[in-house]
Write the structure tokens for this entry.
Amino acid sequence: MPVSPKAPTPPTTDPHDAQVVIAGGGIGGAGAALVLGLRGIRVTLLEKAQEYKEVGAGLQFGPNITRMMQKIGIWDRIEPLVVYPNRVEFHNAVSGDLIGRLDLVDMRQHYGSPYVVVHRNDLLQTLVQAAQELPTVTLLTAHGVTGFEDIGDGVQVRTATGETFRGQVLLGADGAHSVVRQALVGDDVQNTGYVAYRGAIAWDDMPEKRVARDAVVCWAGPGLHLMQYPLRGGTLFNQVAVFRSPSFETGNPDWGNPEELDAAFGPMCEIVRNCIPGLARIKRWVMADRKPLDGWTRGRVAMLGDAAHATLQYLAQGAGQSLLDGACLARLLGGLGAAPWTSDDVARVWRQYEAERLATASRVQTWSRTWGEMWHVSSYADTLLRDEAFRAHDPYDYSLMDWMYKPQD
Amino acid sequence: MPVSPKAPTPPTTDPHDAQVVIAGGGIGGAGAALVLGLRGIRVTLLEKAQEYKEVGAGLQFGPNITRMMQKIGIWDRIEPLVVYPNRVEFHNAVSGDLIGRLDLVDMRQHYGSPYVVVHRNDLLQTLVQAAQELPTVTLLTAHGVTGFEDIGDGVQVRTATGETFRGQVLLGADGAHSVVRQALVGDDVQNTGYVAYRGAIAWDDMPEKRVARDAVVCWAGPGLHLMQYPLRGGTLFNQVAVFRSPSFETGNPDWGNPEELDAAFGPMCEIVRNCIPGLARIKRWVMADRKPLDGWTRGRVAMLGDAAHATLQYLAQGAGQSLLDGACLARLLGGLGAAPWTSDDVARVWRQYEAERLATASRVQTWSRTWGEMWHVSSYADTLLRDEAFRAHDPYDYSLMDWMYKPQD
């Protein structure tokens, strides 16, 4: 008998006594809450912000992510939000030359699922709303996780409100600067010295209209790139400008400031230069990642998403990989049944989770770095090689992406 | 009436009163002496060594060089010395994979003149012998040029023997460490921190036979390469191993020593490793070049070959470009006639010489650096791009080389 979304929360979903406590209500955490809840698992999600809000503008989902969404039944909710770009275009940002294409219409046929782009906040709101409709899921804002204790048959999770939440397991989905990872691993993020400026503005307000509006467009230059794609049915246009700050190495506390943005993109071709004023200059993002780990779990605690495998954005897989983590955990934990999970149960799930997810997510981390290095080559020789290699690539050849996009099962 | 090679030198060829004094009897200087002498110009060549001897093993001539040799009538003497490789092969030195080819049989059809390789000393001996047969050419060994003075209507050239040689002009063909350039320009060579070991050994003695014997083979690895090709009808096998010395930057006076050679090539594929013992370890060459100049002449003095435009060897154009210089100068000076050359005559010839030769030779200098950087890429990203770009290159597409190989007139 399906539970009505309007039904009052039954006593078994006391948020202080959940099966799964999730630290962090970003895309990874909210997505995990949703897919766990869809399997009837009692979830309490603890988010430190006052409201659910994704900063940044757009994100991309490759065929591996949309396939999973179709498979677990959340695609119908996501699909109305997305735009289907026709292709990826790579340009040399200095000359403006088109140096490579990837056909996304053909790619959809090839992999059986589409490549889409979506507004980050549209996606998050949809995930949160869908999770909130589920009777076994409680989402709490203004409840930042400050610490936790593994108590053998469960985890006690403390929040900044002074409360304690009990879960049979804790999932650390608290992002690149994860409290959970700090406790489990204690490593530092790897700052690359690159910084990003973003902005999604009305297409009508775009200062430069000579840009493909039906594509994901990447302008690759020395130590920088500009990424562009449409959002919300093409009414919005999303831009991300990324560059290596010349003053990062010198320890300038204001490294990556807007003056450096202008200086970096000043020598680019006219079209690229004209696009830069479309970026929001009040906020900037540091491009950092984490070293791949041998494992993401300990005792009753597991990490997912950026907390487990923070990656540079160059393969556009960060958000999608976090949703894959959640889908995997939901399937495995859902298979354990309703009785209290033993430590052996949990250990078996964690082993399987790592077996399924760790190799791919780690490869995303290392390949994202490599892929970014290819975009950002600086020397004349390297740029010639990059342009020649990109030009030579068949727009219908996805073999380099098979490890990532192909069905895994 | 043709002058017999055996005829005694007529008084007009007093070596102390020549039309052209050449400093340096390497391939550039000896080649210039030959082509000037073929036009009846009185030449005195001053070489510091006790005998004419080219160190190093092989060299390569592209279609631009063999075309010139055919045109000026020296090809018949060179041709018996050369080997015609069928192709250039590029391999990744780490994996051993063949990543690119250039078809030299087809290239010969395309450009109308062949790509050949030849033993450096075979070539030099032939140039010297051919020059010695000419009645107006005097070649003197053990006569290193120590200084010179432009006296308005000519040049007084001093040698280490204490003699003075008068010429209407002086050609500085005294190589990468040119005395003439030191006086005219005073710049330093640009040391790249790379060092080369060479060796031409009997094919029968090659420690590794799984190498193409009918090709120019280049194994490109991180900060290194190994170049191989046959000489003397394939009886000899020429090898050049080049690597970036890890201790160059640290100021080690013994940088680039044989232990570093072994360490650099140790991680390469088995075939490459097996070839390294075939190199002579008693001598090594520093890979250095010069910055391109705006001009190569002053007053009654001009430079040619390495003195004018020392280049890294990666386009295999160093020797050939020096012969092009000599051929150009012989044509222009030959056009001046027998009467004493006025300063205006000489200035006009120098302007024309620079107009014809400077742009191409400078491009060889800058492109050789770029080409070497492509071979020597180190990072994973750059290596992927290099291999992809080389793989994508059509073995029958020479368009990138047209500026160098195509007839200029």
